[in-house]
Amino acid sequence: MTVISRLPGPVHQRWDWQLRAACREADELLFFHPSGERGQAHDNRETAAKRICARCPVRPQCLEHALTVREPYGVWGGLGEDERLALLAPAGRRGR
User: Fold this and answer.
1) Is residue 2, in this structure, part of any structural domain at all?
2) How confident is the model at residue 3 (pLDDT cuts 50, 70, 90)?
3) Mainly resides where (predicted)?
4) Is residue 52 within 8 Å of 37, Cβ to Cβ?
5) Could you report the per-residue pLDDT of 48-91, keeping only the tens digit for each?
6) Residue 87 is labelled as binding a ligand
């Protein structure tokens, strides 16, 4: 369950970066895996989403948001779920 206490308040200046996001023009399903998706289908979908992120002008803000609120699902700021978890892991547990 997402802990909403980590979400920033509803100040439009904190969220206006989303208006410039490259993903606004893409199918949002590309960024979130359907239930049971595995293997090559998962990898292909995630790679396509990351391609969009790679050209996004607000990628750093998106990733910062996802890490701050510990977004548990999807591709955010060019990183998938496991990649974000690895960044958030304590230094002694990274790479295990």
Assistant:
1) no
2) confident
3) cytoplasm
4) no
5) 999 999 999 999 999 999 999 999 999 999 999 999 999 999 86
6) no
**Tokens (6 digits) for 52:** 């969009």
Torsion sign, CA atoms 55, 76, 5, 18: positive
Q: How far apart are CA 20 and CA 38, in angstroms?
A: 31
23 is in an annotated binding site: yes
3 belongs to a structural domain: no
pTM (2 decimals)? 0.79
For 20-60, what is each residue's pLDDT tens digit? 999 999 999 999 999 999 999 999 999 999 999 999 999 99
6 domain residue, yes or no: no
Nearest Cα to Cα of residue 78 among 26, 23, 8: 23
